[in-house]
Amino acid sequence: YNEYKSYLSLKLTMSATEKKAFPLKRQEELKWNGWGYIDSKLEADLENDNVLFTGNRYPLAGKNLPHLLKWFRETLGADTSFRTPPQPLNLSKIPKPIRCEPFMEEARKFCKHITEDPEDRLMHGHGHLCEEMYMLRNNLFTRIPDIVVYPSCHDDVVRLVELATRYNVVIIPMGGGTSVSGALLCPENEQRTIVSLDMTEMNKIHWIDYENLTAHIDSGIIGIDLERKLEKEGFTTGHQPDSIEFSSLGGWVATRASGMKKNIYGNIEDIVLRIKMVTPKGTIEKSCQVPRMSAGPDINEIILGSEGTLGVITEVTLKIRPIPERTHYGSIIFPDFESGVKTMHQLSRKRVYPASIRLMDNDQLKFGLAIKPEKTMFESLVDKVKQVYVTKLRGFKEHKMTLCTLVFEGTSEEVSIIEREVYAEAARNGGIPAGENNGKNGYLLTFSIAYLRDLAMNFGWLAESFETSVPWDRVVDLINNVKQRMVITAKEIGLLKPPYVTARVTQAYDSGACCYFYFAICSKGVEDPLEKYITIEQSARNEILSNGGSISHHHGVGKVRKQYLESTISSVGKEALLSIKQHLDPANIFGNGNILGIVGPTTKSKL
Q1: Do 221 and 248 meet the contact criterion of CB atoms below 8 Å apart?
Q2: β-strand 512-522 against 461-471: which pairing, if any?
Q3: For this structure, is 516 an active site residue?
Q4: d(Cα 247, Cα 136) in Å, to the nearest integer?
């Protein structure tokens, strides 16, 4: 059995010729100042009033989006002739590295890839917060990593952490770099050498256990690569966050990530069996691999959500599932948002869960229509007939109706049963089926929509997303109150245009749901727009908390939400986390400043 595992380990190692999600030097394929691949972007043609999605990676790629600029003008009130393009990279503005020669000399003895290249360092010094993108686009660089090191195995990480402890060097682990919590930002006042530990060369599936449906995997593997490898063997993790193309397994564990199909497969904490993490005090891991154990507090829960503050996650054992026999998409139009939420709540009470069920509000529905590609005359005629049926015969109001997208997975029989129950419950609340294509397009649009922010920023709009979890009886009120609070705050601080705020319910639970917001503000004619953007986002977070929501459902704490930690888990709870930190990392080697806000070579919080 062990020999077979070893054979499979070799079989599933990423070969030198097999293309990964992105190369060692990320900037060869990924944008350094925006989302995603260099060849994929929304390109505005103002002369023809059109937007083209470039590249060939996504369903929208190569297609014209003739309604998008009009949506910018009419919905946002944007001036599409006003341009704020990103500035070319100015290498002279990148801070010089703080070097620790003994660390580098010894690390080079066993690590094949170590670099001080300015572009490599910059690529590893940020995530994808709006603030980070704004600063990058304007060459406003502060503190970035001094060295980037790429370990290739667990033992490399052990030796690197030992060296860092010996020479008092800071380590910031990095996977795909998709953080939207400021987690990858280097503390500006950190005077020690900062090493970005790029984990993506650790991308091996060590073994698959066919009998117990588990797999042992390196933490640096990118989600899409993990799914491709498992698919060859007939399996899936089922974990599909919006960022699956770029985020890593270790990042999922470190942030307590959630996926779009969590209703069937669970969140990351539900599919993790065992975690190996290297700390300055040694390696933490369970001694056995069992479905459940009663041995005091679960050690996995100390690691899950630790955001690189305690150590480096190197290997993870996950539950896996056979690839489902059938995947089917669907959608439902509701007369209003409240009807959709009521349906989701009722389905949850009955524990009737499609793999994915997501309800967008009216504003997001209109945006979805604006980003649709051009149609043939026949397709336009069919859409017109559907519109007449919905608005004239069924009486739905265009300014109130909402859309729910669905994904069903399982055996053909399971899918049919769940479909019937979902559509029957929707009908009791006035919902009508809207077809498979709307469901599929809405689901796949998730992977393209992140590119929209770059286009918006080109027109002078700052945009971001944030999320929360909330009990069912507060979902509608929380969303309405947050929207209202953001509009009021924008007016109070003197914004010339109201913010654009839209929301959707993305994950359903027995006792509540995840609510996901997008918002954008216009920076044209605004003094210090970034500060005003932050003020509005913080007002939204305060409103969420006052309405009984959480500080985050799956994005994590990082640096942007650490001020809310004590009010969330209590002062005693925060002190308990601090005690764990002080024991595992007394010199603050993992000094990224996330969660507890500990910075510098000390265990005393700077908060």
Answers
A1: yes
A2: antiparallel
A3: yes
A4: 20
Cβ atoms of 318 and 237 within 8 Å: the answer is yes
Tokens 């027109």 sit at which residue? Answer: 459
User: Which residues have C-beta within 8 Å of that of residue 509, sequence separation ≥ 6?
Assistant: 348, 469
Q: Tell me the C-alpha distance between 478 and 545, whole Å.
A: 9
Element (H, E) at 238: none
The three state secondary structure string of 57-115 is CCCCCCCEECCHHHHHHHHHCCCCCCCCCCCCCCHHHCCCCCCCHHHHHHHCCCCCEEE
Mean residue pLDDT across the chain: 92
Contact yes or no for 401/333 (Cβ under 8 A)? yes
Separation between Cα atoms, residue 473 and residue 469, nearest integer Å: 12
Q: Is residue 492 classed exposed, middle or buried when 0-12, 13-18 and 19+ CB atoms within 10 A define those classes? A: exposed
Residue 278 three-state SS = strand
Provide the CB-side half-sphere exposure for 211 (13 A, CA). 3
pTM: 0.94
Q: Are 133 and 464 in contact (CB under 8 A)?
A: no
Phi, psi (5° rounding) for residue 160?
Answer: -65, -40
Instruction: Count Cα atoms within 13 angstroms, Cβ side, for 7.
Output: 5
State which of 1-5, 377-381, 399-403, 488-492 shows the largest mean pLDDT: 488-492
Token readout for 313 is: 């996650």
CA 504 vs CA 201, 316, 365, 404, 515: distances in Å: 36, 32, 10, 9, 6
pLDDT tens figures, 446-483: 888 899 999 999 999 999 999 999 999 999 999 999 99
- How far, in Å, CA of 493 to CA of 563, rounded? 22
174 versus 605: which is more confidently predicted? 174
Would residue 600 be called left, alpha or beta, if left means φ above 0 and alpha means ψ between -120 and 50 degrees? left
Give the whole-angstrom CA distance, residue 31 versus residue 41.
10
Catalytic pick among 134, 353, 516, 533: 516
Q: Which two tokens stand for residue 459?
A: 């027109």
DSSP 390: I
Structure tokens at 38: 């260099």
Q: In whole angstroms, give the CA distance from residue 253 to residue 275.
A: 9
Nearest to 457 by CA among 86, 65, 154: 86
In contact, 530 and 131? CB cutoff 8 Å = yes
How many whole angstroms separate alpha carbon 504 and alpha carbon 526? 29
Cross-strand bridge partners of residue 114: 149
Helix (H/G/I), strand (E/B), else coil: 43: strand
Q: Which helix (H) or strand (E) holds 271?
A: helix 268-271
DSSP 31: -
Using CA atoms, how far residue 600 sits from 94, 181, 206, 558, 588, in Å, is 22, 20, 36, 16, 7
Look at residue 15 and tell me whether its pLDDT is greater than 60. no
Q: Alpha helices of 463-570 — where are they, by DSSP H? A: 475-492, 529-546, 565-569
Degrees, nearest 5: CA angle 406-408-414: 145
What is the C-alpha separation between 261 and 453, in angstroms, rounded?
Answer: 25
